[in-house]
Structure to design on (284 residues):
């Protein structure tokens, strides 16, 4: 999809366990050419073709920015670097260790089929922090938006009135996937303060109403809290009586997923961790 004369976005599919998922990748053309995220290892040839169709040969790709460290956003990093060693890789300093050492990432976040999704560890050339500017003919302002992961960033292109949010806002038709719901809420507020109208999300692609998407993300979080309260009331569970380790987290997740419209969806480790981050507000 052509968003502006310089900005293009496309969806790429991959398999995670038994399900098919997708990730949107963004190409920005300028004095320097920049790719935002690299999908999974199996997406490499299709992303390469996408860039070439838009007039950017891999030898002319200057910068790759990873919005965070997860496998579906860094999966083709190594293959891009192998094809063009001159590409500079950028990521938030909290994401850097998990991109440079994928074994470390897998130990902390054992996603099914992880090593099929990712082509290898990749050195980060530029560590980013909140407020940094990446100059490529137009300024890309880095906004630290954690919650989904510690090192999640969004990229504000003021000149184009666009925010690229990575996975910082939960997807419209997706199960909840984030590490810390309290920090996620703060990132919602932070993104509201950005004077952008348009959004490019790795979950849902382009939208011309950023507030609509943020509102939807906030409502999802509210729904989950509501369903947690329903579950606790239904089974007469009181925080004074139990600790979080005493709870059947998989059963609670299954209940909430059913309420959210994902009946029959078996809770994965990363979804359980998402719901657990809500429960930590109820139990110690």
């Amino acid at each position: 999809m052509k968003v502006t004369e310089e900005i293009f976005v496309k969806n790429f599919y991959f398999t995670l366990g038994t399900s098919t998922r997708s990730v949107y990748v963004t190409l920005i053309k300028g004095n320097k050419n920049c790719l935002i995220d690299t999908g999974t290892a199996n997406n490499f040839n299709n992303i390469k073709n996408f860039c070439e169709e838009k007039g950017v040969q891999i030898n002319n790709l200057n910068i790759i920015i990873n919005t965070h460290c997860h496998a579906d956003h860094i999966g083709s990093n190594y293959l891009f670097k192998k094809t063009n060693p001159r590409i500079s890789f950028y990521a938030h300093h909290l994401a850097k260790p998990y991109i440079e050492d994928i074994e470390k990432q897998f130990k902390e976040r054992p996603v099914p089929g992880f090593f099929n999704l990712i082509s290898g560890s990749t050195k980060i050339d530029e560590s980013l922090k909140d407020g940094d500017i990446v100059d490529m003919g137009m300024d890309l302002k880095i906004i630290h938006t954690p919650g989904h992961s510690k090192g999640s960033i969004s990229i504000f292109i003021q000149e184009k009135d666009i925010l690229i949010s990575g996975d910082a806002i939960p997807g419209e038709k997706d199960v909840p996937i984030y590490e810390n719901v309290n920090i996620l809420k703060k990132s919602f507020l932070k993104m509201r303060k950005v004077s952008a109208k348009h959004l490019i999300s790795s979950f849902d692609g382009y939208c011309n109403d950023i507030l609509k998407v943020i509102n939807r993300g906030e409502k999802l979080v509210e729904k989950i809290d509501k369903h947690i309260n329903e579950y606790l009331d239904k089974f007469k569970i009181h925080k004074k009586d139990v600790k979080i380790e005493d709870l059947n987290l998989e059963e609670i997740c299954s209940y909430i997923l059913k309420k959210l419209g994902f009946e029959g969806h078996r809770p994965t480790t990363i979804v359980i961790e998402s719901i657990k981050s809500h429960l930590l507000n109820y139990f110690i």
Remarks:
- The two ends are 46 Å apart (CA to CA).
